[in-house]
């Protein structure tokens, strides 16, 4: 059984963006150390939808993040961190430890890449509070009240069948209320198979207005490839990405498809640009040469 935290209720909100997903404790060895060599870890909090809510707040947008976290010091600390960065957590659900002692805050370990060595992530998120939540426990009429935009990523429905069904319910309710719905496909092979992702996201995408996808996600989830692009080699073909976005739009009726374009020169240096496909046309941004401070969350900043 999960309960809405009464201390976080009744916050007045005008039009707002609401994101939904899992927030996790992030543990990172300092100074680019490998996990197997580390004697200590730096702790912070993260998660794709939480990162997007933070990006929106930094842009001055009224943003709200919704999740389910354990009613203990870790869960409360995650909420406090979000609120300290101007993200509303009014609808956050806290599990009651007396009733659900096994519920926990998901954790991931990040081994930061350097030079030719890529970053490495180890998940420890089984039986997290949000993964154990039930579909019927989400009051979407209440959660989406006053919202103008609802966003989540493909990571959230990958947490389990109940959460996948809840995401679908939320997207349907949002569409019924005239709220824009967007999703970053964000395929994670450590969480589910390509076949399962295609089945679940194919149904959810019917209710989406905007889709964010890179060339790998479109291929892994829906079998749509950017012809002429070499993902591992960093070769990009603009016509190929327009083709991918066009096919996604034709299949699901999206208002727009946004694509991140990354050309990797090393773990620390990338060329970044983006494309927005809307109205039958592809619009490309300027290309930026980026020296990366923290690779994790880069796609979320684009989403924001």
What does this structure look like?
With 304 residues, the chain is an alpha/beta fold. It is built from 8 helices and 16 strands. The strands form 3 sheets. Strands 2, 5, 10, 11, 12, 13, 14, 15 and 16 form a 9-stranded mixed sheet that branches. β10 (147-153), α4 and β11 (180-184) form a beta-alpha-beta unit. The longest helix has 16 residues, at 161-176.
Indicate the percent of residues in helices.
Answer: 25-40%
For the report, how would you describe the main beta sheet?
Answer: 9 strands, mixed
Overall spatial form = globular
Number of helices: 8
**What structural class should be given to the helix and strand makeup?**
alpha/beta
Low-confidence stretches: 6-13
Order of helices and strands: EEEEHEEHEEEHEHEHEHHEEEEH
**Ends: how far apart?**
32 Å
The gyration radius over C-alpha positions equals 19 Å
Relative strand content: 25-35%
Please state the average pLDDT score. 87
Count the beta strands: 16
Assembly status: single chain
């Amino acid at each position: 059984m999960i309960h809405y935290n009464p201390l976080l209720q009744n916050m007045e909100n005008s039009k707002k963006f609401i994101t939904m997903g899992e927030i996790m404790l992030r543990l990172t060895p300092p100074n680019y150390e490998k996990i197997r060599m580390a004697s200590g870890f730096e702790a912070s909090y993260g998660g794709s939808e939480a990162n997007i809510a933070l990006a929106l707040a930094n842009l001055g947008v009224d943003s709200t993040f919704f999740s389910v976290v354990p009613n203990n010091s870790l869960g409360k600390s995650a909420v406090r961190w979000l609120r300290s960065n101007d993200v509303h957590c009014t609808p956050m659900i806290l599990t009651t430890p007396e009733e659900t002692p096994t519920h926990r805050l998901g954790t991931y370990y990040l081994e930061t890449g350097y030079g030719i060595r890529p970053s490495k992530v180890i998940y420890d998120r089984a039986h997290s509070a949000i993964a154990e939540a039930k579909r019927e426990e989400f009051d979407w009429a209440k959660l989406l009240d006053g919202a103008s935009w609802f966003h989540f990523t493909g990571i959230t429905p990958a947490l389990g069948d109940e959460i996948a069904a809840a995401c679908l319910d939320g997207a349907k309710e949002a569409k019924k209320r005239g709220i824009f719905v967007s999703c970053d496909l964000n395929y994670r092979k450590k969480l589910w198979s390509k076949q399962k992702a295609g089945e679940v996201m194919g149904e959810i995408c019917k209710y989406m207005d905007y889709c964010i996808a890179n060339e790998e996600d479109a291929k892994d989830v829906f079998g749509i490839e950017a012809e002429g692009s070499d993902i591992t080699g960093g070769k990009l073909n603009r016509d190929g990405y327009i083709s991918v976005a066009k096919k996604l739009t034709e299949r699901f009726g999206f208002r727009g498809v946004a694509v991140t374009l990354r050309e990797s020169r090393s773990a620390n240096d990338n060329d970044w640009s983006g494309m927005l496909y809307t109205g039958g046309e592809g619009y490309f941004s300027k290309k930026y040469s980026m020296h990366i401070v923290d690779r994790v969350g880069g796609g979320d900043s684009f989403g924001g």
